[in-house]
Amino acid sequence: MGNYVSVEEVKSHSKITYEDLGYTDEGSFNSFLDGLIAQAEAIVDDYCGVPSGFFKAGGLTFTELRDYDEEFIALNHYPILEVVSVAVNTASYGEAEVWVTLDSTDYILYPDEGLIKLVGGEKPTIKEKSVKVTYKAGYVAVPEAIKFACIQLCSNYLHAVLQRKVSPLVRIDEFAVKLVIPEVFTPELKKMLLPYTRQGVSVG
């Protein structure tokens, strides 16, 4: 089962059975769909410019070293679900690092923007890579738009295979999926994903 959608969800949406694609049993078809789902999720992650599995329920945990800024410290991934810890290096240039963990009252979090502002406690002596943040970013549940995009990608692919009346691939791989991405990754799906994109990534 994929992180974002299930085999059963793809079957239900596509209305395609294992007999339609020439499989001899449900198990073989399920294995094929597992691989297809993994590739669809990878396409969505890549297009949105996020790490693999970013949209799975509960998000992912990251640790980053950031430069100190009196205004805002920008983290790479957002929205932020939870800040695990914020530490600052109080050593001067040429000295061994001395990391001091801040209290939660020593910083303000702007979760939707991925920003932190230090407002109390120790401050770094140097600017470069002097703030260490461990945090969890992503979503409590898989966003509905992400789920639908993955399901629709898989469904579009299955229908493309069916319409061409070619033998389905027993083992799905990235190359095979990329052959039909321009056809199945429609402008409508890309538009739906725009609110979740983090950089200008284009696929197909």
Secondary-structure map:
Blueprint (H helix, E strand, L loop, with lengths): L6 H8 L11 H23 L11 E7 L6 E2 L5 E10 L9 E3 L5 E4 L4 E4 L12 E7 L6 H21 L9 H5 L2 H4 L2 H7 L11
Antiparallel strand pairs: 1-7, 2-6, 3-4, 3-7, 5-6
Helix pairs in contact: 1-3, 2-3, 3-6
Describe it for me?
The structure is a single chain. With 204 residues, the chain is an alpha+beta fold. The strands form two sheets. It has a four-stranded antiparallel beta sheet with strand order 1-7-3-4, with no helix packed on it. A three-stranded antiparallel beta sheet has the order 2-6-5, with no helix packed on it. Mean pLDDT is 87; it is low at 167-171 and 200-204. The protein starts with 6 loop residues before the first helix and ends in an 11-residue tail after the last helix. It is elongated, with a radius of gyration of 22 Å. It has helices spanning 7-14, 26-48, 144-164, 174-178, 181-184, 187-193; strands spanning 60-66, 73-74, 80-89, 99-101, 107-110, 115-118, 131-137. Helix 2 (26-48) packs across helix 3. It is built from six helices and seven strands.
